[in-house]
Amino acid sequence: CGSVKDARILFDEMCHQDVVTWNSMITAYCRNGNAKEALELFQQMQHEGVKPDRITFVSILGICGSSTSLTECHAMHSVIVANGFQSDVIVENALVNMYGRC
Fold this sequence. Notes:
globular; single chain; mainly alpha
């Protein structure tokens, strides 16, 4: 039904949020064209100590490029390297796609 607002209310009310929960909310924002909110939530996720996984990066990279500057794309690429996902073929494909849209 596309109610990102309701999804966010439920997300915020949860007692425990693991990487799957964060990914679900980030993906909801991405699929509904809310790039700014997705990126802010990604930053909050990291701030709260939840380690992103390949799903997190593929979702975020899907909105980068068309919604962000080349500088922000480079910054996201650096985060991927820092988290050890630079050799993950799925993440690498998403990076190629992101740079192709910058």
